[in-house]
Amino acid sequence: DRELGPQVGNPEASASRKFDNSNVLFGQDTYFKFGTASPWIEPGDTSFPKQMPFVLSQQRYDALKKYGERVIRGTKAVEALGDVINSTPVEEFSTKILPPDAPEYYLRPLGLLANNFLASENTGTTNELFLARWYINEIYLGIADARAAKSKEDALKSYDAAKKAVNSFLGMMNRSITAKVGDKFELIGQPPTVAAASATEEAKSE
Q1: 8 Å CB contact between 142 and 159
Q2: Is 195 helix (H, G, I), strand (E, B) or coil?
């Protein structure tokens, strides 16, 4: 018998996920399908998942144009939680940390981007789409866990997991963003890449 559970396969996954998946944003994800967690995707790693589903570049282009800006804003809002946690007394976490369904995190647009990047009429719902949703759900749970934390240490652990979930999600999306589709996403909490740094310089000089 396989061992099942929200943290089986990734001890850093949220322990607060309900066994029936009833407290997440997207009910149909990897956990829903397989009953286990997934590993994080390390920045730059393309070995997992093995491949990305074939989706026409026009569909990806349109989706990136439609949702890309919101995805950036949402992931930046998650990134900013570290400062909130560090500067907030524990008893104020639940008021100072926005709940995970707050529109500022744009988690639904993350899901809509994934729908368009990882599935088409021809593929139906792919395992890769289930995986992307699992990462979004882990962001959602990580934020909820940080709000409910009884210590800064616990809150920062949950924040760290949410950050890893964000970067895993963005890493997947970036594999589907070719030059034809648009610009890849910057991961959060990373030293800015040289390209980003030079773009910032250009913006300053304009």
Answers
A1: yes
A2: helix
For 140-155, the DSSP string reads HHHHHHHHH-SSHHHH
Q: 């026009």: which residue's tokens?
A: 58
CA 58/CA 170 separation, integer angstroms: 19
Confidence class for position 171, pLDDT limits 50, 70, 90:
very high
Residues 91 and 96: their CA atoms lie apart, in Å, by 10
- Tokens 């967690």, residue? 37
Distance of alpha carbon 131 from alpha carbon 154, whole angstroms: 25
Q: How many CB atoms lie within 10 A of CB 189?
A: 15
Break the chain into its structural domains and give their ranges. 30-184
pLDDT for 13-45, tens place per residue? 999 999 999 999 999 999 999 999 999 999 999
DSSP of 46-85:
-SSSS------HHHHHHHHHHHHHHHHHHHHHHHTHHHHH
Spatial distance between the Cα atoms of 184 and 122, rounded to a whole number of angstroms: 25
Query: CB count, 10 Å around CB of 83?
Result: 9
What pLDDT, in 10s, does the model give residues 124-158?
Answer: 999 999 999 999 999 999 999 999 999 999 999 99
Tell me which residue has tokens 């304009």: 206
Domain 30-184: top CATH class: mainly alpha
